[in-house]
Amino acid sequence: MAEAARAGPDSSGCAEENARLKTKLAKAEAIIEVQGRVHALLEELSKSADSDQPET
């Protein structure tokens, strides 16, 4: 009987929120991955710029 009470009308709201949060998590993970790539590229550019400057 307790199981039936848990699967009541509130469960569809939980499923919708779960789906929304999964989408939000996937977007956040994609952003973090892109930020990591940008960081790596900027680091390489910085190293390249440092090695291109003449010693004084």
Provide a short characterization of the protein structure.
The protein is mainly α and 56 residues long. The protein is built from 2 helices and no strands.
Question: Main attributes?
Answer:
mainly alpha, 56 residues
Descriptive report:
The protein is mostly helical. Helix content is 86%, strand content 0%. It contains two helices and no strands. The chain is rod-shaped and about 75 Å long. The termini are far apart. The mean pLDDT is 86.
- Would you tell me the structural class of the helices and strands? mainly alpha
Task: Please tell me how large the radius of gyration is.
Answer: 24 Å
Question: How would you characterize the largest beta sheet?
Answer: none
Oligomer: single chain
Mean pLDDT: 86
Write down the overall geometry: rod-shaped
Q: Which helices and strands occur, and which strands form pairs?
A:
Blueprint lengths: L1 H5 L3 H43 L4
